[in-house]
Amino acid sequence: MYDPTIFENLKVAFENHVYDLDNIDHKIHITNRVDRMDLSILAREFAIQFTLVTKQDVIAEIVLKASLEDLAGEILETPGKQLGCSLLLRFNKRVQNVNLQCTKIEQALNNIWENEIQLTQTLSYVYEQKASGYLNTIDIEFIHKINEDHMDDITDFLDHVLETLEVLHRI
Known about the structure:
The protein is of the alpha+beta class. The protein contains four helices and six strands.
């Protein structure tokens, strides 16, 4: 009998919770969804992108990944391995005052997510376009892998994501 992987179970759980925030609670608007199997490295990736319904200037994306090592370790029941999926949050926000806004973003996100993250901000702009600021791609990578033991934390996690969207909107 087919036994779903940790990745499949987490993907469905995240998907259900996020779609409830869109279709039932009407707090967010889903703008994109990716479910990818990378055959070159035998890895899985699920991503879902959304904005707040009332404030669409900041985009959030939840990215769940499972490597070949994670998937094989689970299927082969390799003992002593920390099995699970990698979790990444990505936010896209336009900034004008780079030094001020990026510093405020770093402080705010470290307050919301505490010590469990690795934060990276990447600034970009389109060459030869009139300067309307920079696109700040904010990656929040979680240090520890997640698995089915974290299913009960998804609601709180999404509350923090919504809080982050609100905070980024104000900065």
